[in-house]
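S.,

Sequence below, as promised.
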Amino acid sequence: MTQPEPSGPAGVTHVLVGYSPVMLGKLDVLLPENSVLVVEEPAVIAARGIDGLADAHRCVAALLAAPSQDEEHPHRIVAAVPRPPGVRAVVPVVEYGVVGAAALAEAWGLPGAGPKAARVLRDKARLRAAVDGTDLHQPAWRLVRNPEDVNGFRARYGAACVLKPAGRQASLGVRLLDADDDTAAAWAHTTTADEPSLRAGYPDSARFLVEQRLYGPEVSVEAVVHEGLVGFTNITAKTVQDSRHPVETGHTVPAWLPGAQADALRGAVAVLVAATGFRSGVLHSEWILDGGAPHLVECAARLPGGGITALIDLAYGMDILSALLGVLDGSGPTAERPPVLGAAVRFLIAPVGPVEAVEGAEEARRAFGVEEVHLGVAPGDEVLALTSSWERAGYVIATGTDATAAARHAEDAAALVSVRTARHVGGAR
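The prediction came back faster than expected:
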């Protein structure tokens, strides 16, 4: 592994906290050779086999093993990462690197989320507490330590509720409970959910919360924020699995909403920025339109996953990663802009079991409007039950003259792909 020089590698202008092959692929085009330092946890480097990162990406000058996910002691990453003399921006790449990125940016006098806002946005309970007392709508909630606490909440607010970890991502551990669901079983699922290849094994300080169920269409809002002011904003429509595990099965950009609802969401994001003290970066907030009004689900202080960045770039004719780099290096805000077309992603949902064959991908790639088909499984892989985003079998991205057309093209192409397993036979849709 290449180690940085005592003052940081010469020529580095951007420090990435966390590893993303997708982001590095884009930065290979956007940034000069040897201009990026990637900071990642030693355990994650080993688990993902990325020691040779500098050889795989022209933009990467070095990979530095450092305590990037030690959220309780952010001073450790500041002590471990020498400040490159020409550094212009610190980029939070992964969910578990948001606090570390904010700490480095603050120590080096660069724009960022701000340490306080980063801590709030990395913990769903802290976010709920920050929003309490504002004009934002959110469900009743409570931190819980055991199934008895959950049952106490259910007795007070109704048997239907949501149980979730305070600090995970990708719907990991989120469990919807109906009146006849067993609390103990749900508790066991939520409290054991983890992603060890992406998260370092620090002493577990995991927290869990229970919330009232919300009902209605689900959307997310992606906003580029510059010094506390919201600039470019997109609203994404979501489709979600009808299950106890609310995993997203598709996204469409831009969401079609009545003007009043869209304005309410944009206003809610401005309140959210003020409530958390967020400074500069991208916010990816999720909302349920319960009774037609936006109710906050959660918010991340990083670029969205699930293909949403690609959809935004296609729909608006822009590069949202460049917009993020701009507000983080002090170049200035990114203004609102109208969409030029519609874009949609539909995820491939495969039947559980060992994969025997994957068919139809080439036909899907040739389908009208299709931009990309990605397969996440191959013969010999094991498909698990869909309880988080990580169990999805792939995706199809398509465009159209508007969002409705894009969604139709993505759905038609996804229906062409079939994942056949040993236990079940059926399409991946």
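The chain is about 30% helix and 25% strand.

Coffee later?
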